[in-house]
Amino acid sequence: MVKLVDTLGLGPSAFGRGGSSPLSGTTQYYKNFMGIFLLVLLFAILLSFFYSVVRAISWVPMWGKDIKTILDLADVKKDDKVYDLGCGDGKVVFAAADRGAKAEGLEISVLPYLIANARKIISRNKAKISFKDFWMTDLSDADLVYFFLIPRIYPKLKTKLEKDLKPGAKVIAYVWPIEGWEPTKVEKREKGPAIYLYEIK
Ligand SMILES: C[S@@+](CC[C@H](N)C(=O)[O-])C[C@H]1O[C@@H](n2cnc3c(N)ncnc32)[C@H](O)[C@@H]1O
């Protein structure tokens, strides 16, 4: 810890105690600022990681090769409103936006949120990456809701989807089916997780 504090430039000399520093005032100020910034960022990443685990699940990326199957299965079209509940690095919403959909990824964990935004900037993708808790987001405009979450939260999620979604809206559950709902289509492969498509009546 002492080493980390020193590396970040927050040691005693940084605050004018214990020996003289060869660094100029501006350089020392910059070092202190960066050190505090990195500590705050680290704290935010850890805190939001635990928050995401409590609220649903931490970041586990889906298989990139399944994206096309998911979007084909849901027949995503231009101007469809697509949500990914817990979008991770954003790869599903980026692919949906590439098809012309109004795609939005909701993410509550700082690290994947930052990665998704960096990817969005680099690839100039039109998808929206929102730092939002999906439990607190109104999904009533959705044409498709996709998620890769865990069955532990499905009963509560089912209630939210039944309350929020309009008739005709589609839901794609990655890996685990939704108990009590009849899927319209199921993609089961020998290698790779199952994908379940549902339609709201
Ligand atoms: C298993 S990962 C799936 C990532 C991405 N959807 C994919 O398919 O690759 C689940 C994601 O949900 C996020 N998450 C968990 N609870 C959340 C919440 N209440 N609101 C928004 N995101 C949440 C986690 O941080 C994590 O990135």
Note the total helix count. Answer: 6
Question: Strands across the major sheet, in which order?
Answer: 3-2-1-4-5-7-6
Order of helices and strands: HHHEHEHEEHEEE
CATH topology of the largest domain: Rossmann fold
What does this structure look like?
The protein has 201 residues and is α/β, with parallel strands linked by helices. The protein folds into two domains: 2-55; 64-199, 3-Layer(aba) Sandwich (Rossmann fold). Helices cover 38% and strands 16% of the residues. The protein contains six helices and seven strands. It has helices spanning 2-7, 25-55, 67-73, 91-98, 110-123, 154-164; strands at 81-85, 102-107, 128-131, 144-147, 170-174, 185-187, 195-199. The chain has a seven-stranded mixed sheet, with helices on one face. Strand 2, helix 5 (110-123) and strand 3 form a beta-alpha-beta unit. 31% of the residues are buried. Mean pLDDT is 89; it is low at 13-19. The structure holds S-adenosylmethionine (SAM). S-adenosylmethionine is lined by residues 52, 55-62, 84, 86-88, 92, 106-109, 112, 133-135, 148, 174.
